[in-house]
Design brief:
There is one protein chain. By secondary structure, this protein is mainly α. It is built from four helices and no strands.
Length: 123
Amino acid sequence: MAKKKSLDEMRDEAYRRQDNLASDIDELIDRVHPKNAVTRWKNELTGSVKAFSAAGDGKTPSTLPTAIAGGVIGVVLIGAGIAAAIALSGGDEKPSKSVKQAEAQKAKAAKQKAKEKARAAKD
């Protein structure tokens, strides 16, 4: 019986580890998701702007508009950075010249083959 109990314990531990691994993977996916990353960056920027404006002399009651402006500027800069990264990565490029040339050659070969078939049908 002691053997069976240790096997059950091992199985339970394996299930527990599997669940922990699954939750870790879910957390990593959540952290890496672009929408969540932008939200996190926006919150960090807004928080840093609020902390910076609150660290002043204490006489300025207009910290909220300053924080909002800083947050908007931060989001715009992050958006511009993401757009630049996408543009530089070349993810949405048009087909290259070699692809266009290959397609043109296929079309030309198909046209030539059609002409040959037409000639053969005449003869």
